[in-house]
Amino acid sequence: MMEKGAILKIDRSSYHLFAGLVHWRTTGRQEPDPLPPSASVLDELDNPNLRLYVASAEGTPAGWISLLYLPKVGKWNGRGHIYVDELWVAPPFRRRGLARLLLAQAGELAREWDASGIRLYVNTENPAAQSLYASAGFVPSGTACFMEKPV
After folding, report:
1. Which residues pair with residue 2 across a beta bridge?
2. Can you tell me whether residue 101 is helix, strand or coil?
3. Residue 66 neighbours by CB under 8 Å, 6+ apart
C-alpha cells in the first residue's frame, strides 16, 4: 500500500507496483501482474539513464511515468534531455492531478541531472494528452512521425 498522493521511484523491490499498473493498462483488470519479472527486466532497472515513478491515489498505485535521460553533445554542451517515454494514469484516477504530479517529477529529475529540457512525443489523435502537456508548459516543436522497427 502506498501513501495517498505519493510518488515512488521504482526499483527492484517495488517493481511489482509498476508491473501491476502495466497489467491493468494492457488487460483492463486491476490486479497484480501474475507473472514474475524476468532477470533481464530487473536488470534494466539498474540502467542509470532510466527512471520509473508510480503515483498513488487513495493508497492505490494509480499511474506511472517512464523517464529516460539521453546525453547530448555539440551545441548542448553535454547537457542532455529527459524524455517522457510513457505516462499513464488509470481511468478511475484521471483528472485528479496525478499526471501533473508525475510530470513535475520529470522536472525535478531534469533539474537534478542538469538537463537541457524535457521532451516527449504525443499521439496526434490524443487531444486530451496534448491539452495536458500544453497546460504543463510543453509547446509543439516541429512535426514528428513516430516510427519503430521490431528486431
Report:
1. none
2. helix
3. 50, 51, 52, 84, 85, 86, 87
**CA–CA distance, 57 with 85 (Å, rounded to integer):** 22
Highest mean pLDDT among 2-6, 130-134, 139-143: 130-134
Look up cell 494528452; give the residue.
129
H/E segment holding residue 22: helix 15-27
Does the pLDDT value for residue 141 go beyond 80? yes
Residues 6+ apart with CB under 8 A from 45: 10, 11, 12, 15, 52
Q: Note the pLDDT of residue 26.
A: 94
Q: How many residues does the chain have?
A: 151
